[in-house]
Amino acid sequence: MKKGKVFTKGQAILVIMVLCLGAAVWLNMKFSSSEKYLGEATYVNKKTSSTEAVQTSAKVNETDSNYFENAKKERNANLKKQQELVEETLRSSSLTDDEKSAATDAVKALVSRLEQENNIETLLKAKDFADALVIIGDKDVNVVVKSEGLTTTQTLQIQDIITTQTNIPLANIKIVTVK
Predict the structure, then answer these.
(1) pLDDT tens digits for 88-102?
(2) Which of 77, 102, 103 is nearest to 89 (CA)?
């Protein structure tokens, strides 16, 4: 070793690499957390990328304890009205073949949405979400789940179920928790 040199070039590189590794571990611990609860009001205004779902939170009044039951009844009543309207349209003798075909396609779309909603709700119940309501729109899905707050794992489970049952991208999935 030469006189006057405290560190060699190799030792200096090793010290720099150890410092970088320590900084990476510290940053990882600071910015990652396990089982973070989502669905708080601070997430409502958060901008999301096209690969993230939006999650919000709502509170149900004590007098409205049957929220899920009432919402499903209302959804079924609306579905019946739509079905009756389409059937009435099909009974009309002044329809052309194209109009009858369009009405039939509308019925098929309604049935398909209903099946998807029921499938998703059943799968959510299998994942221990006792109360869940799924509303599928033309380009989006809204899911209402009874929960105090969802963990990241639970949110990912919901997203996975929806994306496998529908062709709707994550950016168009909205998860609302009801307490």
Answers:
(1) 777 777 778 888 788
(2) 103
